[in-house]
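Notes to self after the Tuesday call (sharing in case useful).
The group wants a holo model before anyone commits to mutagenesis around the pocket. I volunteered. Ligand is adenosine-5'-triphosphate. Logging inputs and output together so the record is complete.
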Amino acid sequence: MSRLQVVSGKGGTGKTTVAAALALALATAGKRTLLVEVEGRQGIAQLFETEALPYEERKIAVAPGGGEVYALAIDPELALLDYLQMFYKLGGAGRALKKLGAIDFATTIAPGVRDVLLTGKACEAVRRKDRAGRFVYDYVVMDAPPTGRITRFLNVNDEVAGLARIGPIHNQAQAVMRVLKSRETAVHLVTLLEEMPVQETADGIAELRAAGLPVGRVMVNMVRPEVLDAEDLERVRTLPRASLARALSAAGLGGARRGGHAERLVDPLLDQAGQYAARYELEQEQRAVLGELDLPLHELPLLIEGMDLAGLYELATELRKQGIA
Ligand SMILES: Nc1ncnc2c1ncn2[C@@H]1O[C@H](COP(=O)(O)OP(=O)(O)OP(=O)(O)O)[C@@H](O)[C@H]1O
Ligand SMILES: [Mg+2]
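Result:
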């Protein structure tokens, strides 16, 4: 199992949610995971129902079995100061740089440098060891940018090549790429059972592979429960209306009055079944497309009551059941 797990996917498909559930799932049996947010939107804090995360690793959850989840919202400006401090021992000069706007330059004008800092911070956490020589985090899970930007984001080497051909930024980028392109890393893509996100997933995988980045698993999120299967749907299609009305009546639906109102329920019911059948077919088509990708597939249920902390643990349990950890 790769120690750096990157979660991408089309916007709004559940990247943040799945990354958080994955971090919980991997924190089994006393393991420690770090959940990293790079887009500065405090999605993790919201999900875990805690206050906004500072640029500091903090424990935000305990997993069943005693594992721990830490979280970090990486602030690119502070990461740059960190970085300058590490390489140049700048101290107060860092603050002067900030006043001069050099940090704005590096973090907003030169996005390549920004991405090196973000990925660099995650890779540093992956490699960090304690005094006894053990890894501080068993796993690092990154809530990463969406599919459309993920390859470029992770391919920091290419990005900085034009900016820094030698020197510490260059070396940092090389070190980051060594981790990102190795088996230590897996990039997962979250999708829904809908045409657009599935297409984006297929394109994203091709792009990641072309860049030599390791693709992990496909996580199908918000999967609706199967109410009727193909056999049931066939039965609905061929069932005579009269016998449906009789069956409803016999089940006590449509009123107890002789003759009842069961007949009136037949059309709405068949209408609903028809809609369900159409959706079922579309979903099966998308499942088939995903099947062709030849990657491990996981399905996570749509939580109808909406997402909360309990729901998050539910999704983590589901991932564990499906052999993610
Ligand atoms: N399995 C699920 N069941 C129900 N609701 C879900 C599920 N997964 C995610 N959601 C909800 O869907 C919405 C989008 O999820 P999330 O924020 O994780 O997506 P995202 O891909 O990170 O979005 P963005 O692209 O904006 O970062 C949220 O409101 C979240 O609570
Ligand atoms: Mg998100």
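Two things stood out.
The domain at 4-224+302-321 is CATH 3.40.50.300 (Rossmann fold).
The CA atoms of residues 188 and 217 lie 5 Å apart.
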